[in-house]
Amino acid sequence: MRISIEGVGIQFRKGVKVLDDVSLEVATGDFVALLGPSGCGKSTLLNAVAGLLDPAECAMLGRIALDGGARNGTRLGYVFQRDTLLPWRTLAENIHVGMEIHAVPVAHREQRTRELIALVGLDGFEHYYPHQVSGGMRQRVQLVRTLAYEPEAILMDEPFGALDAQNRMLLQAELLRIWERRRTTILFVTHDLAEAITLAQRVVVLSKRPGRVKRIYDIPLPSPRDPFEMRASPAFAELETRIWKDLRDEFRAVPA
Amino acid sequence: MRTLSLVSRRLAFVGALLLLWEALTGGLGLPAILDPIIVARPSAALQEIARYSASGLLVKDVTVTLQEATIGLLLGIGGGVVFGLLLGYLRPLAETVEPVLVAFNSLPRIALAPVLIIAFGLGIASKIFLSLFTVFFVIFFNTYLGIRSVDPELVKALRVMGGDRWDLARYVVLPSVFAWIFAALRTSVSFALSGAVVGEFVGSTSGLGYRMVISAGLLDTNRTYAILLLLMAIAVVLVEIAKRVEDRLLRWRPTAILAS
């Protein structure tokens, strides 16, 4: 799915202007990282794309189009930073939820759940409740829960932000593997430069609040990528240095 | 403490309490510190239970009291859940009726007993209503607060998945409300029993509470204590059942680790 963000400005009713004239085109099958300092409005932009903004709390200028049109009935996936699994459902049952909502036949549901559980190496944990497994495992389930109902685009809001370094890299590798296989459009919010370069085809640097698009970088690193290896490559280091120069000034500003 | 099982430790503690009580009331060949006319000896109270049972009254009284408490409990839970959901969903209505509900809730609900007996007579109906009212408010407030405290992030997650109002109710609101309701189950069970027994104290023709008031009036200390022990035993069993139900239905919850 193509995501078109045209001249979007968002202001909270209490007066804070978080985004100013942001335009961005995410092509079908693209993997775009939104990178910016804390408070620059990157999560707000993601919520706007997902249609989660409360009009009572903020006003939006500009237009967001999904495949050129309105949001009606499009399947979006959203992976939150905080764990939003349903605590009263087992891991397998959590993966079912999206498929139940989209009325996927039961037999199909069970089979797809088995595949997804295997995909992220959670075999044997199907019938555990979320509180019984680690944060990394819960985040894996959040990821495949979203894949289960085959959304046309996946929005991710710092999904690995709460994980330790090892789990973060493992999950980055899994996400890359999945994306390379399925080529679902992904819009990924992060404040971690290395993560953005590791994952995305394009990195959009946002300025400090009110967030504007400062620059867009192509990341011409070859596929398949391996997060454990690529950090050592000269191309990676070169990109990191280049983008950091842009980002540095925005990071330096103290978030209000 | 580690070597003995929990059940044996508990039984030993109850046994020790009974022995102490027996000794204080002049049992075990010791001089009585408490007059057995005022405080019954546990051995005598237990013998009285046997006599009470043999007369056929025990089964009758227990049946009446349990009937009142159970019907009151079920109706109270049903009513509380329905009203709690209704008001939880209809904010303007909730805001309108809230002061009245708070007023009713702060009233000692047992104080309704005389009013209910005037309205529904000495039979079981008035006790069912008293039981119902005591349970209703607990369940109602838990349901209502349960709806209010649904995690907005879970709601958001379901909405992006494409969930409509019904999906939200089914996947998020009702399960989290049920957690609140089940958490109030144990309290409700003992409330239901108190409702029934106090109703019987105030005015009735049968039931454990009725028999207890009559015995106390006749200074039949043994029977009064016998009924007290029976009520305790019934409460322990009922609360244990409620606890099992709760543990089973809320097994998804992280168990609180108690100091051991």
Descriptive overview:
The complex is a heterodimer of chains A (256) and B (260). Chain A is α/β, with parallel strands linked by helices and 256 residues long. In chain A, 38% of the residues lie in helices and 23% in strands. Chain A has 8 helices and 9 strands. In chain A, the strands form 2 sheets. Chain A has a 6-stranded mixed beta sheet, with helices on both faces. In chain A, strands 2-1-4 form a 3-stranded antiparallel beta sheet, covered by helices on one side. Chain B is globular and about 75 Å long. Chain B contains 11 helices and no strands. The C terminus of chain B is likely disordered. Chain B has 260 residues and is mostly helical.
Give the overall shape of chain B: globular
Q: Do you know the CATH architecture of chain B?
A: Orthogonal Bundle
What do the pLDDT scores of chain B average to? 89
State the helix count of chain A: 8
Lateral arrangement of strands in the main beta sheet of chain A: 5-6-7-3-8-9
- Described by its quaternary structure, the protein is heterodimer
| CATH superfamily grouping of the domain at 1-74 and 193-256 in chain A | P-loop containing nucleotide triphosphate hydrolases
Structural class call of chain B reads mainly alpha
Hey, roughly how much beta strand do the residues of chain B contain?
under 5%
Q: Just name the CATH architecture of the domain at 1-74 and 193-256 in chain A.
A: 3-Layer(aba) Sandwich
Distance between the termini of chain B: 10 Å
Beta-strand proportion of chain A: 15-25%
SSE map:
The complex is a heterodimer of chains A (256) and B (260).
Chain A: E1 3-12, E2 17-26, E3 31-35, H1 42-50, E4 58-66, E5 76-79, H2 91-101, H3 106-119, H4 135-148, E6 153-157, H5 165-182, E7 185-190, H6 193-199, E8 202-206, E9 213-218, H7 227-230, H8 234-252
Parallel strand pairs in A: 3-7, 3-8, 5-6, 6-7
Antiparallel strand pairs in A: 1-2, 1-4, 8-9
Helix pairs in contact in A: 2-3, 2-4, 3-4, 4-5, 6-8
Chain B: H1 6-24, H2 42-54, H3 57-89, H4 91-106, H5 113-120, H6 124-148, H7 152-160, H8 165-183, H9 185-202, H10 208-217, H11 221-249
Helix pairs in contact in B: 2-11, 3-4, 3-6, 3-9, 3-10, 5-6, 6-8, 6-9, 7-8, 9-10, 9-11, 10-11
